[in-house]
């Protein structure tokens, strides 16, 4: 049977067909749908881990126990999981293990566009790069076989256009794979120096064998066409090259990109007049080709920044552009924004008013940096809000000044890597104030459950980890839970924080507006009372607009959260009903 | 069937471009085409500008449409049609939902929603303007606007030999099947 599948969905299908029984991930665009789809196969135990490091470590445990396992994450997630990965490369596996990294060239939904292919080289583990959905599925099977045969974890590297591209996939049956027996093996699995020193030798020897494999593996292949131009490429770039050139040129398509097949590359280079490497982001393949002493054209023509597309390659190599319509009208941008009824809005409004430094983090609430709220000062990586606010506060204090520093962090991000920052504050006697925006879900990536929501990925009930109690247990002196739809409550808590040196955490607890059922309610502007001061526009609510001098609220979008009513100085907004108390 | 066709669907997060493209691709696959698509999920879904790219034919390589390569742009919102217009092939068609969704900068009075967009579209490309939102609203739910537009697209591409109603049935929740089938039929009639 054939089906149109997302690359991510096809990876999940591969996990199913090739006998994976354990899968873990932390969500992150463009990798999230891998685990969401795996969860639909009851044959596989799957879970959301609190972060990528935990996901990879859990997959390592499952592999050592003898199961075929998989862990998935976005590119920056592999930074978090790099520690276990590098040593897992030494121990090797028992059951096959695939680590999926989904990179985001062009940064559609990311804070950087690092090229994770270097991780394979750095950690000395084999890497496969599928080009389309069919290969996503097939390569999971190949990766698991390589993993077991060569006793190594395997990196499967996707990019946004592969992970979120769709293509036709031929479905197969699940091949039942027996759990391997577990045997205690201290020299292999206990990486104390004496053992690790020996395992490093094993790693280097394994690489030599993998270098032979990569020369002959069928996913590294030459597609002969015209010999004037030869192009070495992999992943999505392969499809763009075929789109632009068809059979005009010869193509060395690399499905296995670590280790790279030096002999095959040499043979290919010798058979064509002019050699190019077409790859997104860094000159990863190009550097290897140059190191072989082969003349090649790459990044001098193909951009290193952003994603490629057929048009860019056409222009770079063929010096051609497709004719297209062009109009001289400037249309306003349309960046994403906080939804109507979003519980983050009120907190940002209050923080903005207080004009305090607010170290930000990653989630929907990063949108609080956009006008008109412009309430956060930084966004670096997940978790960096609380820890960053601590460093900020200490640096200010050490210079002899005194200032209250705040941070904002979502519930999922708090569990991911905010807790350790909070421990830092308590342990090192800081007083920066974390505000945990507990909207009861991992919203940004499309509503995944997390340790605070009371449900697992597989749909079972789970204990809800209580952030307030956790903070108290860590030793935070003042823990205030506020209703984020009540500005006064937020402001009182912020004022309290401004006036104490005690450690303090504020938890703004109120559900994301997109959690069903849709909140019912409506706010209306009384045109008689409205003085057109524009205060209501300062909360950046997409339901409120000003057109031809008249302010109004779109009833289809309004959820009745009442934040606009609370900021109106003239009592001109009436709310028919509003979201119930959330405590 | 040899020639590859490219359809670019553009709109605003939450308008249902992904469902429309899923129905389209499933129908195309059933009738034997090779299909590739590209979507962008994540951040842009919060009311941002979104696009889905669909390519079909005997053998499709790239899931991504380059500038000047779209045979049809289906714009779920007027301003988005103009934003993406340079992706249209010379001689291509724009199917545009006449609805206006102001971005935040316009809502808060910082920028103006551009005027005369429909005229701009019409003077640059073959344009089919559809009041898909009103039609869907008339059927009882504005959310079916995506399927109205799909109907217009299918008719325009001449893909009438596919059992679209069956595909719609497979892709929407039970209680919305009738609504969507009616929306699809309305779309077909419009062209
Ligand atoms: C290391 C890492 N993993 C994953 C992501 C992707 N990501 C960005 S925001 C986010 C979730 C945010 O959820 P939460 O903190 O609950 O905030 P919300 O979006 O609900 O406001 C995730 C998973 C990332 N940017 N970095």
UniProtKB/TrEMBL annotation, chain A:
Q: Which GO terms describe its molecular function?
A: 4 iron, 4 sulfur cluster binding; indolepyruvate ferredoxin oxidoreductase activity; metal ion binding; thiamine pyrophosphate binding
UniProt EC number: 1.2.7.8
Which CDD domains does the protein's record reference? TPP_IOR_alpha, TPP_PYR_PFOR_IOR-alpha_like
**What reaction gets catalysed by this protein?**
indole-3-pyruvate + 2 oxidized [2Fe-2S]-[ferredoxin] + CoA = (indol-3-yl)acetyl-CoA + 2 reduced [2Fe-2S]-[ferredoxin] + CO2 + H(+)
Which terms are listed as keywords in the entry?
A: 4Fe-4S, Electron transport, Iron, Iron-sulfur, Metal-binding, Oxidoreductase, Pyruvate, Transport
Q: Cofactor comment in the record?
A: Binds 2 [4Fe-4S] clusters. In this family the first cluster has a non-standard and varying [4Fe-4S] binding motif CX(2)CX(2)CX(4-5)CP.
Return the SUPFAM superfamilies for the record.
Thiamin diphosphate-binding fold (THDP-binding), TK C-terminal domain-like
Q: Subunit info?
A: Heterodimer of the IorA and IorB subunits.
Q: What is this protein called?
A: Indolepyruvate oxidoreductase subunit IorA
Automatic annotation (TrEMBL), chain B:
GO molecular function terms attached to this record: oxidoreductase activity, acting on the aldehyde or oxo group of donors
What UniProt keywords are attached to this protein's entry?
A: Oxidoreductase, Pyruvate
Q: Please report the stretch or stretches of sequence annotated as the Pyruvate/ketoisovalerate oxidoreductase catalytic domain.
A: 13-189
* Protein name as it appears in the record: Indolepyruvate ferredoxin oxidoreductase beta subunit
| Pfam families assigned to the protein according to its UniProt record, in alphabetical order | POR
Could you tell me which InterPro entries the record lists for this protein?
IorB_Oxidoreductase, Pyrv/ketoisovalerate_OxRed_cat, Pyrv_flavodox_OxRed_cen
Query: Which domain of life does the UniProt lineage start with?
Result: Bacteria
């Amino acid at each position: 049977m054939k089906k149109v599948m997302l690359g991510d969905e096809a990876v999940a299908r591969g996990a199913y067909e090739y006998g994976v029984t354990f899968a873990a991930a932390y969500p992150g665009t463009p990798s999230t749908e891998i685990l969401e789809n795996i969860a639909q196969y009851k044959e596989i135990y799957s879970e959301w881990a609190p972060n990528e490091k935990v996901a990879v470590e859990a997959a390592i445990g499952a592999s050592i126990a003898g199961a075929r396992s998989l862990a998935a994450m976005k590119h920056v997630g592999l930074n978090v999981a790099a520690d276990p990965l590098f040593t897992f490369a030494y121990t090797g596996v028992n059951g096959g293990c695939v680590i999926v990294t989904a990179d985001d060239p062009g940064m559609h939904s990311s804070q950087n566009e690092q090229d994770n292919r270097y991780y394979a080289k750095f950690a000395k583990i084999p890497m496969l790069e599928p080009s389309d959905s069919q290969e996503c599925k097939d390569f999971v099977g190949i990766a698991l076989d390589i993993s077991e045969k060569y006793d190594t974890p395997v990196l499967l590297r996707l990019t946004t256009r592969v992970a979120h591209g769709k293509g036709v996939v031929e479905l197969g049956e699940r091949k039942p794979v027996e759990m391997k027996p577990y045997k205690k093996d201290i020299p292999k699995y206990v990486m104390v120096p004496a053992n690790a020193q020996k395992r490093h030798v094993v790693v280097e020897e394994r690489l030599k064998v993998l270098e032979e494999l990569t020369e002959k593996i069928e996913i590294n292949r030459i597609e002969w066409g015209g010999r004037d131009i030869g192009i070495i490429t992999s992943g999505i770039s392969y499809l763009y090259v075929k789109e632009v050139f068809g059979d005009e040129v010869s193509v060395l398509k690399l499905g296995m990109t670590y280790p790279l097949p030096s002999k095959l590359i040499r043979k290919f280079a010798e058979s064509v007049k002019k050699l190019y490497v077409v790859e997104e982001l860094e000159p990863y393949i190009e550097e290897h080709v140059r190191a072989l002493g082969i003349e090649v054209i790459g990044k001098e023509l193909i951009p290193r920044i952003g994603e490629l597309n057929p048009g860019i390659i056409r222009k770079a190599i063929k010096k051609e552009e497709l004719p297209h319509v062009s109009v001289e009208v400037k249309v306003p941008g349309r960046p994403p924004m906080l939804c109507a009824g979003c519980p983050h809005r009120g907190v940002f409004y209050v923080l903005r008013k207080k004009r305090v430094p607010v170290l930000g983090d990653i989630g929907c609430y990063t949108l609080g940096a956009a006008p008109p709220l412009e309430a956060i000062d930084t966004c670096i990586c997940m978790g960096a809000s609380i820890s960053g606010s601590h460093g900020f506060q200490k640096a200010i204090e050490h210079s002899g000044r005194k200032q209250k520093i705040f941070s904002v962090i979502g519930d999922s991000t708090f569990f991911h890597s905010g807790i350790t920052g909070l421990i830092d504050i308590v342990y090192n006697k800081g007083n920066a104030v974390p505000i945990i925006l507990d909207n009861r879900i991992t919203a940004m990536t499309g509503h995944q459950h997390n340790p605070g929501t009371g449900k697992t990925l597989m749909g079972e009930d789970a204990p809800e980890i209580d952030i307030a109690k956790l903070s108290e247990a860590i030793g935070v002196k003042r823990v205030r839970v506020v209703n984020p739809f009540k500005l006064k409550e937020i402001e009182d808590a912020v004022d309290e924080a401004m006036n104490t040196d005690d450690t303090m955490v504020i938890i703004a607890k109120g559900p994301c507006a997109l959690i069903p059922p849709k909140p019912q309610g409506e706010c209306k502007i009384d045109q008689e009372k409205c003085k057109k001061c524009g205060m209501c526009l300062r909360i950046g609510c997409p339901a409120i607009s000003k057109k031809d001098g008249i302010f109004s609220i779109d009833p289809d979008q309004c959820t009745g959260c009442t934040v606009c009513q609370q900021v109106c100085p003239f009592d001109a907004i009436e709310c028919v009903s509003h979201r119930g108390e959330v405590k | 069937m040899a020639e590859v066709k490219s359809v670019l669907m553009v709109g605003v997060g939450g308008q249902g471009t992904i469902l429309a493209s899923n129905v389209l691709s499933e129908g195309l696959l059933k009738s034997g085409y090779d299909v590739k698509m590209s979507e962008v999920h994540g951040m842009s879904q919060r009311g941002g500008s979104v696009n889905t790219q669909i390519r079909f034919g005997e053998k499709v390589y790239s899931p991504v449409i380059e500038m000047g390569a779209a045979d049809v742009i289906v714009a779920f919102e007027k301003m988005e049609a103009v934003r993406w217009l340079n992706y249209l092939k010379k001689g291509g068609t724009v199917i545009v939902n006449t609805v206006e969704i102001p971005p935040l900068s316009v809502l808060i009075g910082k920028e103006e929603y551009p005027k005369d967009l429909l005229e701009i579209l019409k003077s640059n490309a073959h344009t089919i303007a559809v009041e898909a939102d009103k039609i869907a609203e008339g059927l009882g739910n504005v959310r079916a606007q995506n399927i109205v537009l799909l109907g217009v697209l299918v008719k325009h591409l001449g893909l009438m030999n596919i059992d679209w109603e069956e595909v719609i049935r497979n892709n929407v929740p039970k209680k919305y099947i009738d609504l969507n089938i009616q929306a699809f039929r309305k779309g077909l009639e419009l062209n």
